[in-house]
Amino acid sequence: MANAKLVAVVATLVILLEVSTCAVARHHGKPDPCSSEDDGSVLGTLHKHKKPGHCPSPGGGIPGIMTVNGFQKGEDGGEPSECDGKYHSDKTLIVALSTRWYAGGRRCHKPIRITSKQNGRTVVARVVDECDSNHGCKDNIVDTSQAVWDALGLDSNIGEVPVTWSDA
Prior knowledge:
Elements: H1 2-27, E1 62-68, E2 94-98, H2 99-102, E3 111-116, E4 122-131, E5 141-144, H3 146-151, E6 160-167
Parallel strand pairs: 1-5, 2-4
Antiparallel strand pairs: 1-6, 2-5, 3-4, 3-6
């Protein structure tokens, strides 16, 4: 009986932590990291997460996989960026997010904070493009310029590294 009460208390605390994280994000005018586009969330309302892994973990940030992309004309990235129709220098701190995180362009030109799970270093980069999950991009990708890898002190030849990210 005591174990059941302990489990209930811990579960309640976890739910309250997630709700407060979402409320703080909404209070500061940032996109609700805990809602999907169609969940009808209302400020202060408890809601179910329709997309697993979408809400920030208690450690801070949404878990993802960082890859390297070429944003200059003629590189792997291919087309100009979705946000402004332009190519960008790989020497700038820029990123393309998977379709669900790109949120139909709502994050265009907005800064995000990216933290390496390998070394704990953090950098702020600007969203300029979508990594289209309907055309080969996994749904948990933070596709960045070489400058982001350099700022995090990581070797882009690795190909993929675990990161967390959040709106900055």
